[in-house]
Amino acid sequence: QEPALRTDLNLATSDALFTRAKDHIPGGVNSPVRAFRAVGGHPVFMQSAKGAWLTDVDGNRYLDFINSWGPMILGHAPEVVLSAVQDAIQGSLSFGAPTRREVEMAELIKKMVPSIEKVRLVNSGTEATMSAIRVARGYTGRNKIIKFEGCYHGHGDSFLIAAGSGALTLGTPDSPGVTEGVAQDTITVAYNDLAATHAAIEANKDQVAALILEPVVGNMGLVAPAEGYLQGLRALCTEHGIVLIFDEVMTGFRLARGGAQELYGIKPDMTTLGKIIGGGMPVGAYGGRQDIMDCVAPAGKVYQAGTLSGNPIATAAGIAQLTYLHEHPELYPELERITTRIADGTRQIAAELGLNYTVNQVGSMFSVFFTDKPVNNLEDAKTSDTEAFGRYFRAMLHRGIYLAPAQYEALFVSTAVTDDLVDHYLTACRESMREAHG
Ligand code: PLP
């Protein structure tokens, strides 16, 4: 039962909690984007969620298009995951010793992502990417990595390098606390520019250990790879002995059972995973070719460890969600159909207002860019009218639609979104677009 579209939100309890939070937590939040700074206003504090709907601490309900930034592909609190977790907690919350579930999880991941021959579980996407580049460096004996402007790989030092620098320019720290020494080993290149990548490799001959990218980018808003781009990167890496790492923390198990690599038919050397793999619990993983993964301790010399890695509750949730996805391949085309309705509908609504906005979509991920320029890289994305986006975001929130509180994010659709809920979204979208441009 959908609440009627409303604009008079009472956020008193959220506001009071945010005031308290700011006294104790930096910026009042445990992850920066949650603070709503890019869109204005205060964050909404959540209480519970089921299916497609979130309920906040003041009792307001929202149709959710963040889905915990991706993990909740089956919607919130699906029975299949909840019951697996309930079973698991009876057997203790952690052992710090091997368990059957870790073996089952590894087997399941390998079955769904065949480029992975061996896999190590960690606790977040950040840990997965940090570990993957260490392994790639250990394997190749080289120091540098190539990353792409606008791709986000978690908050490891090596990845917090300024976007916008040219293909051949060495990175400079993006965040205080990242040393110049670390930054010098990260080379940044524009996404979707194969020639620039080639030039960067030539300029750093025999020094590049790994090339890491989001094969479909979610972190500058949703940006798809150009035709032949991923194939081109694959060929360059093979030719130059560079480890190709697909960061599929967002796209893994979302764009297809086997992620973007299945969708585009590319076999990376290593893959990093997170989000969906934990069903909402903190899990990440990195894996890939056996000869590379056998460098990881204790099989090899590259050290990586974790007190809670392979945690029984997290693996129970992950196994349950992945098993469901594995057994229901039909949900992927259905997710795409629903998301296409949303993307097409949004494009049309903007056009009715004379706004030729770019709506990018791949499978169940989409972004509405407030620009009429096609968006194929960070520079394009930055042409968006972020002020208008902020007004749109607030108008949608007040109509009970929960979007990512920043222009440069992807939105995620869950299997809980029905055709009726798409209609509900589109009604809110039409009113909010008008309000944002009124
Ligand atoms: N890699 C990608 C592609 C991501 O989108 C994210 C997080 O959004 C990460 C890595 C980092 O994952 P986590 O936030 O779990 O550390």
UniProtKB/TrEMBL annotation:
Pathway: Porphyrin-containing compound metabolism; protoporphyrin-IX biosynthesis; 5-aminolevulinate from L-glutamyl-tRNA(Glu): step 2/2. GO terms for cellular component: cytoplasm. Keywords: Cytoplasm, Isomerase, Porphyrin biosynthesis, Pyridoxal phosphate. Its EC number is 5.4.3.8. It is found in: Cytoplasm. It is an enzyme of class 5 (isomerase). Its cofactor is pyridoxal 5'-phosphate. Homodimer. This is Glutamate-1-semialdehyde 2,1-aminomutase. The lineage of its organism: Bacteria, Pseudomonadati, Bacteroidota, Cytophagia, Cytophagales.
